[in-house]
Design goal:
Helix content: 40-55%
Structural class: mainly alpha
Number of strands: 2
Strand order of the largest sheet: 1-2
Number of helices: 5
Order of helices and strands: HHEEHHH
Largest sheet: 2 strands, antiparallel
Shape: rod-shaped
Strand content: under 5%
Radius of gyration: 47 Å
Low-confidence stretches: none
Length: about 160
C-alpha cells in the first residue's frame, strides 16, 4: 500500500497495536510543537529583565529613632575629661544623682561636702532657722578650684 505523504493518515502497522498507532499518527497541537521555543523566549526575556533591574537596590533616607523611654542628653556646665563614672549602662538614674566627675582643679570630695552643706542650709532656711545656717560655713574649704572665688564671696 503506497504511503501518502501529504495526508496525516499513516496506515496501521501490523507490528504495533492500535493504541500506539493512534498516538503516532496524531498530529501534535500548537503548544506541543512550539513549547520549547516559547520556553526559550520566556527565559531570554527573564535574562533581559535582569539587565534593567539591579539588585540590591539601596535607598538612602534620613530617619529618626524614637522610643518610649528614650535616653536623655546630659549637658555639663564646664568642659573637661571624665575622671570617674558612677553609673553603668542600663542603670536607672534619678534627678540630682551624681553620675560622674569631670576633670577639675578642685577636690571632688570637698565639692560634694559643700553641696551637702548647702542643701542642709536651704532646708534650715525653709523652716526659718537662720541661726543654724551660719554654723555650717565655719569649716573652711581650701580646694574648691573654680568655685573657690564664688564660695569666698558667698561666705
Amino acid at each position: 500500500m503506497p504511503l501518502n505523504i501529504e495526508s496525516n493518515n499513516i496506515p496501521p502497522s501490523p507490528i504495533r497495536s492500535e493504541a500506539v498507532n493512534e498516538i503516532v499518527s496524531r498530529r501534535p497541537g500548537f503548544i506541543e510543537r512550539w513549547a520549547l521555543f516559547l520556553f526559550l523566549i520566556i527565559l531570554l526575556m527573564l535574562f533581559a529583565g535582569t539587565w534593567f533591574i539591579k539588585y540590591p537596590d539601596i535607598i538612602q533616607v534620613n530617619a529618626s529613632l524614637t522610643a518610649f523611654d528614650a535616653p536623655k542628653e546630659i549637658v555639663v556646665r564646664q568642659d573637661g575629661k571624665l575622671v570617674q563614672l558612677f553609673v553603668a549602662n542600663d542603670d536607672t538614674v534619678t534627678k540630682g544623682q551624681t553620675i560622674a566627675w569631670i576633670e577639675s582643679t578642685a577636690d571632688h570630695k570637698e565639692i560634694v561636702a559643700l553641696s551637702a552643706l548647702l542643701d542642709k542650709g536651704i532646708q534650715y532656711l525653709s523652716i526659718n532657722e537662720t541661726e543654724k545656717v551660719s554654723e555650717f560655713f565655719m569649716r573652711g574649704f581650701q580646694n574648691l578650684g573654680e568655685l573657690q572665688s564664688p564660695y569666698q564671696q558667698f561666705v
